[in-house]
Design a protein that fits this description.
The protein is α/β, with parallel strands linked by helices and 509 residues long. Helix content is 40%, strand content 17%.
Length: 509
C-alpha cells in the first residue's frame, strides 16, 4: 500500500506529458488477446506506443525514459463509449422519469437547454474518470439554427476533459413525435392539445444540401483537431423511422465520396420494428439491404429488434452494432442479442446513451450490464467476459472511420489506455491466479480506475488535481442550469399527451 501511495504522489509531481515514458503494470491486456500478460512494459513516445517488451529490456534500452510502475496496475486500452448524447445531466433531474421511449420523448420539453460546452465538459470528465478515451456524440441541438456552433462547443468540452470525440450532427425529415398514422393520432386529440401538438411538429428543418453544408462547416471549424486526431465528424440520420430513404441514400453517396461513416438509432423499440413492417412489409435491415444502404460505412445504435436474418445480413454487410444496455432497460426497449452477434463476427460496441444505470456514466458497470443482460438464457446463454471487454475496446473502436483510436495496445497505436487498480477488484478476497478481467467484469466500477491516458497524455488520475477538475466541471454545469431555471422552471403538465401516446401505441400493436 505504501508503494501505491508513493506512485500516486509521483503522478502528482511529474508533468502530465512525457516525451518518452515506460509504463510497467502488474498485468497487461492489449484489447484483442484471450490472455492477460505479465512481465510486460510499454514504451510511449510522444502520443504513440513505440514498443512493448519485457521491463528490463526497455529500461536498458531507454535509460533516460520516465518510468511509471506499480504492482497494483492492470493496463488495458481506454474504453470506447460508442453512443452517447453529451446531455451532462440525466433527464430524471428535470422531472422526466424513465418510461418507454415513445412516451419519454414527449417529456423532453422539460429539459433546460444546457450549453453544450458545459454539458460535454462535465460528461467528458465523468467518462475519462471511468476509463473512457473516446466517445461518439449523437447531438441533440438546443437550436437547429446554431448546430454548427453547438458542435464546436461540444468538441471543445470533450477535448478539455481530455478525450476524443466522434461528432454526429443529426438530420431528420419525417415522422417527428409519432412514427406512423400521425395524422390520425393528431385528429383524435382534443383541442387545444391538437393545435398545440401539430404546431410543434417540424419534420424537415433543412434540406440535404443544407445538411451537407453544415457538415462541411463543422469540419472546417474543427480542421485542426481533426488533423490532430482529436475528433471526426460522421453523418447522422437520427433514426430509421425519422429519415426518408432518399436522405439515407444521399448520405451514403456523400459518405463514400468523403471517406466518412454514418451513425443512426435503429430498432430501439418494438414500435419502430412495427413501423418498418407497416411501411415496407419487411424489417428495416431487409429493406436497407434492398436499397443498398447497408454496408461497413454504417453503425446502428440499440439494434434490439433484430431477427436471425437481419443479423446475418448485418454480418455479411460489415455494418456495426452498438448496444446500450442500461438505456434499453430504463426505457423498456428490450435486450440486445450479444451472443448471436458475437457468433456471427459482427463488430459491436457499447454505449452509455446518457442513461447509465445509476446516472453516473460508469462505463465499467455498463460493461457488466451488457455482459449479463444477454437475450439468451439457460445453459447456452453464457457470453465470454473477454468478448464484453473487446466490445468496449478493440471492436467498439471500429465505429471510427479514420481509426481515431484503435482500441488496441500495440506498437504504432495511439497511446490511449487506462490503468485499473487490481487491489480494488481483488478485495475483500480472491484466490491467486484468477484472471483479473474475470474479476473486473464482475466487480469493476469507476472507483477501480487509477489513471486514464489519451494521446500519450495523462487525462485523469486518482489525485486531488483531477478531482478538483471534476468538481469544477460540476460547478460549471450546475451554475448554468440554475441560471436557465431562473428563467424557466421547466414545469410542464404532459400527462394528457402521454396518455394519448400510450393508448395510440398499445391499441395499434
Amino acid at each position: 500500500m505504501e508503494y501505491v501511495i508513493f506512485c500516486r504522489i509521483l503522478f502528482f509531481l511529474v508533468k502530465e506529458f512525457f516525451m518518452e515514458s515506460i509504463f510497467i503494470p502488474r498485468y497487461f491486456w492489449n484489447g484483442t488477446n484471450d490472455e492477460v500478460c505479465t512481465n510486460t512494459a510499454v514504451l510511449v513516445r510522444d502520443n504513440r506506443i513505440e514498443q512493448i517488451d519485457e521491463p528490463e529490456k526497455l529500461r536498458l534500452g531507454y535509460p533516460e525514459a520516465q518510468v511509471l510502475e506499480s504492482k497494483d496496475w492492470l493496463m488495458m486500452p481506454a474504453f470506447v463509449d460508442a453512443h452517447d448524447h453529451g446531455r451532462g445531466m440525466s433527464p430524471i433531474s428535470f422531472r422526466t422519469p424513465d418510461r418507454a421511449l415513445e412516451m419519454w420523448l414527449q417529456d423532453l420539453n422539460k429539459l433546460p437547454a444546457i450549453p453544450h460546452y458545459q454539458a460535454c465538459y462535465y460528461d467528458g470528465m465523468r467518462l475519462v474518470s471511468s476509463g473512457v478515451g473516446m466517445v461518439l456524440h449523437s447531438h441533440n441541438p438546443n437550436s437547429f439554427a446554431k448546430i454548427r456552433e453547438e458542435m464546436v462547443a461540444a468538441e471543445k468540452g470533450y477535448k478539455d476533459a481530455g478525450i476524443r470525440s466522434i461528432l454526429c450532427p443529426l438530420y431528420l425529415d419525417q415522422n417527428k413525435r409519432i412514427y406512423y398514422d400521425r395524422d390520425k393520432f393528431i385528429s383524435d386529440l382534443p383541442e387545444p392539445l391538437r393545435t398545440n401538438f401539430a404546431a410543434g411538429i417540424h419534420d424537415k428543418i433543412m434540406n440535404m444540401d443544407e445538411y451537407f453544408q453544415l457538415v462541411e462547416g463543422i469540419c472546417e471549424d474543427l480542421a485542426d483537431d481533426i488533423k490532430a486526431g482529436w475528433t471526426e465528424v460522421q453523418l447522422h440520420p437520427n433514426g430509421g423511422q425519422w429519415c426518408s430513404d432518399e436522405a439515407l441514400l444521399q448520405m451514403k453517396e456523400y459518405a463514400l465520396e468523403h471517406g466518412m461513416y454514418i451513425h443512426l438509432h435503429l430498432l430501439e423499440t418494438q414500435y419502430q420494428a412495427e413501423y418498418a413492417k407497416r411501411t415496407w412489409g419487411k424489417s428495416f435491415i431487409k429493406h436497407y439491404k434492398e436499397i443498398g444502404f447497408l454496408g461497413p460505412w454504417v453503425s446502428f445504435a440499440h439494434a434490439v429488434w433484430l431477427d436471425e436474418e437481419d443479423l446475418q445480413l448485418i454480418a455479411e454487410s460489415g455494418a456495426h452494432l452498438i448496444t446500450n444496455p442500461s438505456s434499453n432497460l430504463r426505457l423498456r426497449s428490450g435486450i440486445f442479442n450479444m451472443q448471436r452477434a458475437n457468433e456471427l463476427g459482427i463488430d459491436c460496441g457499447i454505449g452509455l446513451d446518457g442513461c447509465a444505470f445509476d446516472d453516473d456514466q460508469d462505463y465499467l458497470r455498463e460493461i457488466r450490464v451488457a455482459w449479463l443482460n444477454n437475450l439468451h438464457n439457460g445453459v447456452d446463454g453464457e457470453v465470454d467476459y473477454k468478448d464484453a471487454f473487446k466490445l468496449a475496446t478493440s471492436r467498439g473502436a471500429k465505429i471510427s472511420a479514420c481509426g481515431l483510436s484503435s482500441g488496441i495496445l500495440e506498437p504504432g497505436a495511439t497511446a490511449d489506455f487506462t490503468m485499473i487498480s487490481v487491489d480494488s477488484i481483488e478485495k475483500p478476497y480472491a484466490d491467486p491466479g484468477i484472471d483479473p478481467l474475470a474479476l473486473l467484469v464482475q466487480r469493476g466500477t469507476r472507483q477501480s480506475v487509477v489513471m486514464t491516458c489519451v494521446n500519450g497524455k495523462i487525462a485523469w488520475q486518482q489525485n486531488d488535481e483531477s478531482r478538483k477538475k471534476e468538481k469544477d466541471a460540476e460547478i460549471q454545469i450546475c451554475t448554468a442550469i440554475k441560471e436557465l431555471r431562473s428563467k424557466d422552471d421547466g414545469k410542464r403538465d404532459n400527462s394528457i399527451i402521454l396518455q394519448h401516446v400510450h393508448d395510440f401505441y398499445t391499441k395499434r400493436k
